[in-house]
């Protein structure tokens, strides 16, 4: 121990340490400080006994109050479920239109829809719902199977080519792969479709393909190529292309007749959730 | 810098006042050991002008504290009728005609900074005036001492009572004091909670056990701290717990007014008999009145020190004695180190309130105060915030038109429902629409004192001449209230077709 001295000015003993000629006085702490310290020790002992505290080889001491963060989280989750139950009840009783017109219900459905969309739909349609080649864009105003609230709800419930009962099914023939048309005819049809969407195309090929389109395609896509939502046949005259708008993509589609598959969600999502999801998708697409 | 402890002075027996009490309590030596029992202080009642100021401030500050929550204020139906209310559940703060939202908490920051600067300025000018007169610890301790005197008498009677053996008289006096203290403490905690809830409602629900748990907890907590701090700990809170005595040294300089013992005039001190000459001796008769009245238990004649709260009670005590002796008052006075030094050199003492540091503090205070006030006054009645969709940034429609999605948040700070017409400025021919709505124009109805959030689409026709990103703005208009928010209209590259 360094040498402890009595400070002349105050009559208090110093700690004996010296920094640049400055000595620290060793004033005793107030006694209430000591009491608070004892109280803290007493409190901690009580805490060990009442609350989970000590780790052991086979777990930990549970504490007499049987309280733990884990149990509290469980309780909070239960409360959350109960809380969500109210919202679910509202969604159950209201019609799709009522949900969308009521600002509060609409906001609630948006919240539910957004999280459900992120968990279940975003894998194919993208987190923003804009889709990609072969996966429909759910944010624009183009709908293969109809964009009304009920149409969307139906599509989600039953899926597309899902094999489920009531699923929406359409099949475009694979004109090339199944050798229904000659490669030259497919080339001509490609030009015809490009022309339909008001883009420059080979006039000769368009003229050659006209009867072919009339015979093969117009049944589903319509004589003017406007599509048919009953059949899920896309409009060929607009700016939206599910499988790509360039010539190679169009030709590939005529050749192979691709059609995507969407699962039926009726077994996996509750009807209330599907309602919320429908409202979310409908409103984000601007509605139809 | 002022010296906090004057080492040149002869060492007086500063603790004799308390050691008497220690003897009375039969306690051992306070020194030695790691822990020290509190040395009881028995401040004596003093009369004088600073004591009068303290009484006045005690009444004024306590009145403000207890009365404020009961002031009613006329607000429209459905809004609190309480003038000062921190409404946590409604997330609003009301103060007379001012109503603040949580996001306007910067006003509090401004007020707090201004308060800190005002404290700095006051300290630089007048020393620890706050500590001596306005600090809640001082005010409530003062109130508690009044109660203590009521039950146990003044200094001498109290010391006798503490030394006396347990008797019925001692028991009822002590019990009465502590019960009254607890009552005041409970009143303190009780008053505090009224700031957070409608006072007339709360005072009813509180007694029938219907008030929120936070009210009971807050009340209990404040009751306990008031009772312990003002009743038991008193000066120890200032000396050991409060950081301000440590910080205030940085605000003080030789021109700050502090309670000062005028050594040149007082020394050499000593007893004085009536009729004796005052020649060759100081004015201090060592009557120790300045020590016995001090609520901090110090001897101001040792020089300015950390514990001193600048309350001026020793000034009153000394002036009283000097008056009786027929000597001029002011042996202990609010004075500056510079003045003391000047007089000791035979120069004229000049009080200098305008100094660089006081000017800095004053200018900073004016700036912060002005800025806070200005931002409070020019606060808009409504706010529009626009959050642009990020995923997707834009959507191309079947006809080649481009649509951007936005979320608008309109804040209506007025006490009336308002109908905001929303327009979009930036892209010619752009059309506004709302999801699920057929109306061609966007009108948002915002209830009084609410925020409404709405999704809005802006669709630019296919033939619009668009760069990838066009600066634009939303404008929301309701009567004379116009609020706007800048954003951009995104459309990616030029139309691919």
TrEMBL record, chain A:
<keyword id="KW-0479">Metal-binding</keyword>
<dbReference type="InterPro" id="IPR050597">
    <property type="entry name" value="Cytochrome_c_Oxidase_Subunit"/>
</dbReference>
<dbReference type="GO" id="GO:1902600">
    <property type="term" value="P:proton transmembrane transport"/>
</dbReference>
<keyword id="KW-0812">Transmembrane</keyword>
<feature type="binding site" description="covalent">
    <location>
        <position position="217"/>
    </location>
    <ligand>
        <name>heme c 2</name>
    </ligand>
</feature>
<feature type="transmembrane region" description="Helical">
    <location>
        <begin position="32"/>
        <end position="50"/>
    </location>
</feature>
<dbReference type="GO" id="GO:0020037">
    <property type="term" value="F:heme binding"/>
</dbReference>
<keyword id="KW-0997">Cell inner membrane</keyword>
<feature type="binding site" description="axial binding residue">
    <location>
        <position position="221"/>
    </location>
    <ligand>
        <name>heme c 2</name>
    </ligand>
</feature>
<feature type="domain" description="Cytochrome c">
    <location>
        <begin position="204"/>
        <end position="285"/>
    </location>
</feature>
<dbReference type="GO" id="GO:0016491">
    <property type="term" value="F:oxidoreductase activity"/>
</dbReference>
<keyword id="KW-0349">Heme</keyword>
<feature type="binding site" description="covalent">
    <location>
        <position position="124"/>
    </location>
    <ligand>
        <name>heme c 1</name>
    </ligand>
</feature>
<dbReference type="InterPro" id="IPR036909">
    <property type="entry name" value="Cyt_c-like_dom_sf"/>
</dbReference>
<dbReference type="Pfam" id="PF14715">
    <property type="entry name" value="FixP_N"/>
</dbReference>
<feature type="binding site" description="axial binding residue">
    <location>
        <position position="125"/>
    </location>
    <ligand>
        <name>heme c 1</name>
    </ligand>
</feature>
<protein>
    <recommendedName>
        <fullName>Cbb3-type cytochrome c oxidase subunit</fullName>
    </recommendedName>
</protein>
<feature type="domain" description="Cytochrome c">
    <location>
        <begin position="108"/>
        <end position="197"/>
    </location>
</feature>
<dbReference type="InterPro" id="IPR009056">
    <property type="entry name" value="Cyt_c-like_dom"/>
</dbReference>
<keyword id="KW-1133">Transmembrane helix</keyword>
<dbReference type="Pfam" id="PF00034">
    <property type="entry name" value="Cytochrom_C"/>
</dbReference>
<keyword id="KW-0375">Hydrogen ion transport</keyword>
TrEMBL record, chain B:
<dbReference type="GO" id="GO:0051539">
    <property type="term" value="F:4 iron, 4 sulfur cluster binding"/>
</dbReference>
<dbReference type="Pfam" id="PF13746">
    <property type="entry name" value="Fer4_18"/>
</dbReference>
<feature type="transmembrane region" description="Helical">
    <location>
        <begin position="52"/>
        <end position="71"/>
    </location>
</feature>
<dbReference type="InterPro" id="IPR017896">
    <property type="entry name" value="4Fe4S_Fe-S-bd"/>
</dbReference>
<dbReference type="InterPro" id="IPR013783">
    <property type="entry name" value="Ig-like_fold"/>
</dbReference>
<dbReference type="Pfam" id="PF12801">
    <property type="entry name" value="Fer4_5"/>
</dbReference>
<dbReference type="InterPro" id="IPR014116">
    <property type="entry name" value="Cyt_c_oxidase_cbb3_FixG"/>
</dbReference>
<keyword id="KW-0249">Electron transport</keyword>
<protein>
    <submittedName>
        <fullName>Cytochrome c oxidase accessory protein CcoG</fullName>
    </submittedName>
</protein>
<dbReference type="GO" id="GO:0046872">
    <property type="term" value="F:metal ion binding"/>
</dbReference>
<keyword id="KW-0472">Membrane</keyword>
<keyword id="KW-0408">Iron</keyword>
<keyword id="KW-0813">Transport</keyword>
<feature type="transmembrane region" description="Helical">
    <location>
        <begin position="105"/>
        <end position="126"/>
    </location>
</feature>
<keyword id="KW-1133">Transmembrane helix</keyword>
<feature type="region of interest" description="Disordered">
    <location>
        <begin position="1"/>
        <end position="32"/>
    </location>
</feature>
<keyword id="KW-0411">Iron-sulfur</keyword>
<feature type="transmembrane region" description="Helical">
    <location>
        <begin position="215"/>
        <end position="233"/>
    </location>
</feature>
<feature type="transmembrane region" description="Helical">
    <location>
        <begin position="179"/>
        <end position="195"/>
    </location>
</feature>
<dbReference type="InterPro" id="IPR032879">
    <property type="entry name" value="FixG_C"/>
</dbReference>
<feature type="domain" description="4Fe-4S ferredoxin-type">
    <location>
        <begin position="274"/>
        <end position="303"/>
    </location>
</feature>
<dbReference type="Pfam" id="PF11614">
    <property type="entry name" value="FixG_C"/>
</dbReference>
């Amino acid at each position: 121990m360094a040498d402890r001295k009595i400070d002349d000015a105050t009559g208090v003993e110093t700690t004996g340490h010296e920094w640049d000629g400055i000595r620290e006085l060793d004033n005793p702490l107030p006694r209430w400080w000591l009491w608070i310290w004892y109280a803290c020790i007493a409190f901690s002992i009580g805490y060990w006994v009442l609350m989970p505290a000590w780790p052991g080889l086979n777990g930990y001491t549970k504490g007499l109050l049987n309280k733990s963060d884990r149990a509290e989280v469980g309780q909070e989750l239960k409360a959350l479920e109960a809380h969500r139950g109210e919202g679910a009840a509202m969604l159950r009783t209201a019609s799709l239109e009522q949900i969308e017109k009521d600002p509060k219900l609409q906001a609630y459905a948006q919240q539910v829809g957004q999280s459900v969309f992120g968990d279940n739909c975003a894998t194919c349609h993208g987190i923003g719902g804009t889709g990609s080649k072969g996966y429909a864009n759910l944010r624009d105003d183009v709908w293969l199977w109809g964009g009304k609230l009920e149409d969307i709800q139906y599509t989600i419930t039953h899926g597309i080519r899902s094999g489920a009962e009531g699923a929406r099914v359409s099949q475009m023939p694979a004109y090339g792969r199944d050798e229904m048309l000659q490669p030259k005819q497919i080339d001509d049809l490609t030009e015809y479709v490009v022309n339909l969407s008001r883009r420059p195309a080979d006039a000769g090929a368009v003229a050659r393909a006209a009867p072919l389109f009339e015979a093969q395609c117009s049944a589903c896509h319509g004589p003017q190529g406007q599509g048919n939502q009953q059949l899920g046949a896309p409009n060929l005259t607009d700016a939206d292309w599910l499988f790509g708008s360039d010539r190679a993509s169009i030709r590939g589609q005529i050749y192979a007749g691709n059609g995507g598959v969407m699962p039926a969600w009726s077994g996996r999502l509750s009807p209330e959730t599907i309602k919320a999801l429908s409202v979310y998708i409908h409103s984000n697409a601007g509605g139809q | 810098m002022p010296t906090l402890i004057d080492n040149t002075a002869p060492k007086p027996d500063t603790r004799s006042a308390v050691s008497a009490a220690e003897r009375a309590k039969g306690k051992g030596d306070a020194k030695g050991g790691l822990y020290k029992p509190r040395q009881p202080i028995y401040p004596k009642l003093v009369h004088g002008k600073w004591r009068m100021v303290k009484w006045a401030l005690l009444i004024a500050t306590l009145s403000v504290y207890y009365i404020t929550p009961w002031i009613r204020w006329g607000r429209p139906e459905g809004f609190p009728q309480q003038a000062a209310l921190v409404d946590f559940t409604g997330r609003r703060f009301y103060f007379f005609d001012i109503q603040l939202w949580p996001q306007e908490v910067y006003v509090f920051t401004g007020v707090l900074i201004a308060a800190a600067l005002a404290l700095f300025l006051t300290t630089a000018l007048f020393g620890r005036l706050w500590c001596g007169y306005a600090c809640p610890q001082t005010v409530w301790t003062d109130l508690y001492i009044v109660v203590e005197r009521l039950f146990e008498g003044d200094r001498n009677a109290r010391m006798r009572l503490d030394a006396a053996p347990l008797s019925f008289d001692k028991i009822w006096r002590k019990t009465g004091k502590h019960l009254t203290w607890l009552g005041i403490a409970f009143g303190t905690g009780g008053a505090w909670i009224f700031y957070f809830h409608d006072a007339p409602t709360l005072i009813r629900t509180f007694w029938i056990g219907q008030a929120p748990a936070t009210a009971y907890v807050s009340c209990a907590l404040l009751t306990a701290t008031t009772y312990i701090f003002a009743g038991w700990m008193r000066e120890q809170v200032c000396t050991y717990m409060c950081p301000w005595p440590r910080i205030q040294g940085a605000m003080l300089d030789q021109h700050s007014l502090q309670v000062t013992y005028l050594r040149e005039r007082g020394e050499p001190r000593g007893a004085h008999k009536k009729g004796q000459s005052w020649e060759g001796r100081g004015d201090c008769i060592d009557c120790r009145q300045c020590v016995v009245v001090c609520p901090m238990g110090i001897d101001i004649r040792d020089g300015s020190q950390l514990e001193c709260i600048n309350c001026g009670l020793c000034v009153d005590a000394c002036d009283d004695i000097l008056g009786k002796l027929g000597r001029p008052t002011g042996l202990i006075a609010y004075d500056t180190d510079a003045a003391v030094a000047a007089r000791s050199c035979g120069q004229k003492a000049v009080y200098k309130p305008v100094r660089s540091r006081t000017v800095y503090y004053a200018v900073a205070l004016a700036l912060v105060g002005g800025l806070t006030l200005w931002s409070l006054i020019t606060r808009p009645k409504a706010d529009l915030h626009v959050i642009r969709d990020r995923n997707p940034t834009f959507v191309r429609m079947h006809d080649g038109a481009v649509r951007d999605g936005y979320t608008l948040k309109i804040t209506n700070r007025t006490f009336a429902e308002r109908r905001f017409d929303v327009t979009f400025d930036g892209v010619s021919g752009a059309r506004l629409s709302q999801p699920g709505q057929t109306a061609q124009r966007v009108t948002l109805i915002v209830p009084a004192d609410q925020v409404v959030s709405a999704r809005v689409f802006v669709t630019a026709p296919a033939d619009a001449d668009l760069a990838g990103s066009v600066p634009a703005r939303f404008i929301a208009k309701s009567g004379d209230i116009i609020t706007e928010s800048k954003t951009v209209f995104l459309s990616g590259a030029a139309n691919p077709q």
